[in-house]
Amino acid sequence: MRFSSIPATILSLLSAWLLLPLAVHGSYFEITSPSNGTQWVNGQANPVTWEKGLLDGITSFDVELARLSQDGLLYAAKDVPADTSSLNIYLQNVPAADDYFLLFLNSTHGVMYTVSDKFSIVASSSSASSTPQPLTSAPTVSISGGPNPTNAFATTFPPSANGVLAWKTVEGPMMQMAAVTSVVLVAMLSGALAVL
Ligand SMILES: *[C@@H]1O[C@H](CO)[C@@H](O)[C@H](O)[C@H]1NC(C)=O
Ligand SMILES: *[C@@H]1O[C@H](CO)[C@@H](O)[C@H](O)[C@H]1NC(C)=O
């Protein structure tokens, strides 16, 4: 009875923060590049790197770019194998701005796995403070132009040959765990946003 007097927003905020340690220990997935202050350059391949826990059940993910100040997403790559740790993104005519984020998610059901720091995209190397070095051993995907309303990914990776079989046995329970973790993560993010 007493709880009914507590506003729902405060309650959800509280529960989001209470679950925070769970989310942090449950999975580890971090985009290490681009990071805060990184400049990506149009007309070049720009490196993306990440670090990820092994036992979170995520075998592949989709990569999108978003801007803080504008709607719309740039769809970069679908089904990136999670047992790799890097990728290059070649940019062409992508609007220059300093409020881009890279999203790793499952775009099928919209579950977010991780978000990069805010970074910039500049028009050409003449306006860049440093030149990005593409990773020679990593695959390169290209995106061109602004947000794409048709939800078409520029590149779809084929199912990875190794890893898939090994994952089969743990997939069921692990996927459930990953789903719960993602829900918690979303709750946490919305909690954090509400605080800001
Ligand atoms: C990002 O870098 C800017 C300037 O270098 C700094 O002011 C800001 O606090 C940094 N933000 C984060 C989240 O690290
Ligand atoms: C996203 O989730 C769906 C349904 O669980 C799954 O079939 C698909 O393979 C997942 N996509 C990626 C990129 O992991």
TrEMBL record:
Q: Which UniProt keywords apply?
A: Membrane, Signal, Transmembrane, Transmembrane helix
Identify the stretch annotated as signal peptide in this record. 1-26
Membrane spanning residue stretches: 174-195
Kindly provide the name given to this protein in its UniProt entry: Ser-Thr-rich glycosyl-phosphatidyl-inositol-anchored membrane family-domain-containing protein
